Amino acid sequence: MSNLSTPTDPLPTHSPIPIPVYTTVPPIRALRHASTLANQTIGFIPTMGALHNGHLSLILHAAHHHPVLIVSIFINPAQFAPHEDLSVYPRTLEADLSALHSLNAQLDLQDPSGTTLGRIRAVFHPDTSVLYPRGIPLDQSSQRGAFVTVHPLSSKLEGVTRPHFFRGVATVCTKLFNIVQPDAAYFGQKDVQQTIVLKTLVEDLHFPIKIAVCPTARESSDGLALSSRNVYLGPVRRTYAGCLYAALSAARKTYEEGLSKGGVEAKEILLSATMVLRNYVTEGKIEIEYLSLADGRELEEFGPDEKIGVETGEGAVLSGAIRMLPREEGQGIVRLIDNLIL
């Protein structure tokens, strides 16, 4: 990795050519065709907007490997249930485009190492009718058209409480992959189950696409994973929102300390995480949805008494989800997820 500045560094004043925003499929296909003729690879960064430094870091990673970058901004109704927050999900298109324009200005400057970096050549911002021509009611029983499901990964962990979610993710990514036809698509490790689902999808459906997984972007103060939904926390809950990361870090420490003893039982690893969260639960600040220790390919959870050592633990996924309960008037529940790879 070169010494390119991170998205939090001051951006240069140079102003590049505005990034074209396409709302239909043909211009994206034309860009793919032109890139192929020019022997240029495409890196694709799918997003739902409300861009933060985590998204920008994915683009920076992609810029080191592909001369052409395409960013999509599409809030996907298929991954929301009727009771979830589709109607209030942050919509910040103007700010998102400004951030992408500024990032392109940074990419326009040659990297200090002499590396030529890729550029954002297009933003794909389709209307819902483009991706779901038959409509997409949130009630799954009323939906019509082609949908994609990855079994049984979609029904584990996140899929237990959100059984619709990965069907929506797999479906929209299949559509986007088919439209953009990238060489690689970039995702953050924070959504680790999503990355595993998509790796299975591209393998099983023979998409010639690499799923590139980049480290989770975190707040420097307490390790809170960056998320577009963090804006819902408010100042009070934000003060202890890093508790899930602290809990997973404690569990990882228990695993690492147990390696010298030949391993440690899975239940002891997860107990370390539970103990960190216990007071927050008692005080009515959070609810624990799940804490999990699973293998890194199929997300099969380890049995409570299974001893986790070097061979079984390396690459395992330590993950959790909590519900941040309202602390101020007018607030709703905010769901946080996070994970660490052992």
Keywords:
17% strand; 11 strands; alpha/beta; 6-stranded parallel beta sheet; 342 residues
Report on this model:
The protein has 342 residues and is α/β, with parallel strands linked by helices. It is built from eleven helices and eleven strands. It has helices spanning 25-37, 53-63, 93-108, 128-131, 158-161, 165-180, 192-204, 234-238, 243-258, 266-282, 310-313; strands spanning 21-22, 42-47, 68-73, 119-124, 184-188, 210-214, 264-265, 286-294, 307-308, 317-324, 334-341. Strand 2 (42-47), helix 2 and strand 3 (68-73) form a beta-alpha-beta unit. The radius of gyration is 21 Å and the shape is globular. Residues 1-13 have low confidence and may be disordered.
What would the average pLDDT be, to the nearest integer?
A: 93
Structural class: alpha/beta
Q: Low-confidence runs (pLDDT<50, min 5 residues)?
A: 1-13
End-to-end Cα distance, whole Å, is: 23 Å
What proportion of the residues is helical, as a percent range? Answer: 25-40%
Q: Number of helix segments?
A: 11
User: Which strand order does the major sheet show?
Assistant: 1-4-3-2-5-6
Helices, strands, pairings?
Layout: E1 21-22, H1 25-37, E2 42-47, H2 53-63, E3 68-73, H3 93-108, E4 119-124, H4 128-131, H5 158-161, H6 165-180, E5 184-188, H7 192-204, E6 210-214, H8 234-238, H9 243-258, E7 264-265, H10 266-282, E8 286-294, E9 307-308, H11 310-313, E10 317-324, E11 334-341
Parallel strand pairs: 1-4, 2-3, 2-5, 3-4, 5-6
Antiparallel strand pairs: 7-9, 8-10, 10-11
